[in-house]
Structure formats: C-alpha cells, structure tokens
Amino acid sequence: MDGGAFGAGKAGGAFDPQAFIRQPQTLLRFVSWIFSIVVFGSIVNEGYVNRLDESEEHCIFNRNHNACNYGITVGVLAFLSCLLYLALDAYFPQISSVKDRKKAVLSDIGVSAFWAFLWFVGFCFLTNQWQASKEEDNPLNEGGDAARAAITFSFFSIFTWDYMDPSQDSGMPYAPYTNEEDATDAVGTYQQPPPADAFDTETQGYQTQNY
Fold first, then answer.
1. 38, 126, 161, 205 — which has fewest CB within 10 A?
2. Which residues does the UniProt record annotate as the domain MARVEL (predicted)?
3. Is the alpha carbon torsion for 163, 166, 172, 176 positive or negative?
C-alpha cells in the first residue's frame, strides 16, 4: 500500500475489497468474530442442563450462572466489537486527519488489549468451573462438547485479539499525510540559495577607502 499516515494508504483513495480482505488484521477480525459466535452460541444452545429429578435448568459450568452469563456477555460484545472495527478498518483510508487516524489506531490497540484480557479471564473462569462440576449434576453428560468448545475458543480468542499489525504500532515513525497540491506548493515556494559567484561579484565591486 502507498505510504500514508499510521499504516494506511493515501486518504480519499478508492476502496479495494480484495486488498482489504487480504490484510492480516482483517482476517483475524473475521476469525475473532467466528470464535465469539462459537463461544456464546455453544453456551446458549447447550450450556444449560438439569438433573433427572428436577425441571429447572442450571449452567453446565458447576451450576454457576455467573459463568454462563460471563461467557455469553463477552461473546456477544466481542461479536459486536468485531463488526464495529471491521467497519472502521474499511473507512480508515478515507480519514485524512493524522490526529483522527492516531485516535483510531490507539483506540484499536486499547480495545484489543481489553478484549484479550477479558477472554483470558473468561478462559480461566470457565475452565475452573468446568473442572469443579460434579457428575451427579449432569448424569447424562449433556452439553459436554459445547462446554469444551466454549473453553477452547475462549483460549484461542486471547491470541486473535492480542495480535497487533506492525504497520499500526504507535511507536513507529509514521510519515505525515500530505496531498499532491501541498507537495506542489512546497516545491514552488522553495527558493534556491544564491550562487557562490554572487558573493565574489559583490566583493569585487567593493572599493576600500583610505582614511
């Protein structure tokens, strides 16, 4: 891509869907989006079971409703965040202001770190509650695959959200955005220094006076 501010091409350029999809960051957002669906979908569909002698369903993770609620909430919000930042990635090349681009990049970094942390907490929480689950609470072993899928993809989500595109590293020396008209004006207003012969001419025309 053409060198622009904060890893994007020149502002105002045409949107290229193929180039956008091939970007590693875009692919990882799609992967994170799918992982979030697997996590909250698994818990919603098969994350609640009941004993043979009761009708009320309880969370498959040690009958702890907080564990199921956490997995569903984080999964749904991560799903929405992926869609939001996919839209931002598509609109990013149209942003001409360097300050706005910097805000978008820093926001992406902060949100990615935040979600990586939430997925780490979710993985530890679900794993702990799954290990503490009792067999008598689920004698038919229903929803076991769904529970393991939620735990596994919570773990994978830590790394998909923790990835950072090198071109958007805030510590890199990004070149400021300039359009062609500004570059032309800059060249037109530049004045060449006077040639060295001009100083010689002035020196030769100077006449000393005797006092």
1. 205
2. 20-173
3. negative
Q: How confident is the model at residue 192 (pLDDT cuts 50, 70, 90)?
A: low
* Phi, psi angles (nearest 5°) of residue 169: -70, 120
Instruction: Say how many CA atoms lie within 13 Å of 185 toward its Cβ.
Output: 5
Q: Which of 54, 51, 63, 61 is nearest to 136 (CA)?
A: 51
Would you state the structure tokens that stand for residue 128, as one six-digit string? 């702990």
The residue type of 58 is H
- Extract the tokens encoding 37: 């669906």
**Boundaries of every domain in the chain:** 19-163
Q: Which long-range contacts (CB under 8 A, 24 or more apart) does 165-172 make?
A: 165/7, 165/23, 165/24, 165/25, 167/6, 167/7, 168/6, 168/7, 168/25, 168/105, 168/108, 168/109, 170/102, 170/105, 170/106, 170/109
The DSSP code sequence of 111-128 is: HHHHHHHHHHHHHHHHHH
* Cα separation, 119 vs 114, whole angstroms: 9
Please choose, from the candidates 127, 119, 14, 152, the residue with its C-alpha nearest in 3D space to the C-alpha of residue 62. 127
Residue 60, φ and ψ in degrees, nearest 5: -70, -20
Cβ-based neighbour number of residue 180 at 10 Å: 8
- Share of residues in the chain with pLDDT > 70 (%): 70
Average pLDDT over residues 48-55: 82
Q: What is the mean pLDDT of the chain?
A: 78
